[in-house]
């Protein structure tokens, strides 16, 4: 799955210009809104917003890019003819515009636009706490108040390290809905406090900087 954390418009423009507005996997050339700037190593794994860690991909190649930096390196080396994707690209563009419009409306209304994260379930298109919702508070507290490593904590809860990081940075637990770089107040119940969430973000940043 792609790394969807946004970068600044200025940095995106610089990377696109460096790569001549061309997807480095399939060779597709397009406008800035048809291309994505992808982190070779994800931020959650210590990747930085630096030129050497950023590459230009078309929306299709970006969608299927793996999270692992080693897998991504192999993925990028396996070139594909962009012409093969043209029919799919035209169809996707039409569908994605309609889909994005619908998802934007859902997020503005405070409703979920993706599958339910750990600790929630979706019933009648509403996000509700699941049977294991109490584990979210427990997980955040344990990460903040103990010296357990991310690897140990992820194994304890049956998660991958990347999965754990995504939980610890997910604003859904604050009662928020985030889509396309915008955050809105959700209709669902929050599972943790803003204070706990912010303390966890600070500790996580310190660990990733170390």
Task: Walk me through the structure.
The protein has 210 residues and is α+β, with helices and mostly antiparallel strands. The chain has two domains: 94 residues, DNA Binding (I), subunit A (Orthogonal Bundle); 101 residues, Putative Large Serine Recombinase, Chain B, Domain 2 (Hect, E3 ligase catalytic domain fold), CATH 3.90.1750. The protein is 43% helix and 12% strand. It has eight helices and six strands. The strands form three sheets. It has a two-stranded antiparallel ribbon with strand order 1-2. A two-stranded antiparallel sheet has the order 3-4. A hairpin with a 2-residue loop joins strand 5 and strand 6. Helix 6 packs across helix 7. The two termini are 26 Å apart. The N terminus is likely disordered.
Low-confidence stretches: 1-5
Biggest sheet, in brief?
2 strands, antiparallel
Helix content: 40-55%
How widely separated are the two ends? 26 Å
Overall mean pLDDT: 83
- Supply the number of structural domains: 2
The level 1 CATH classification of the largest domain is Alpha Beta
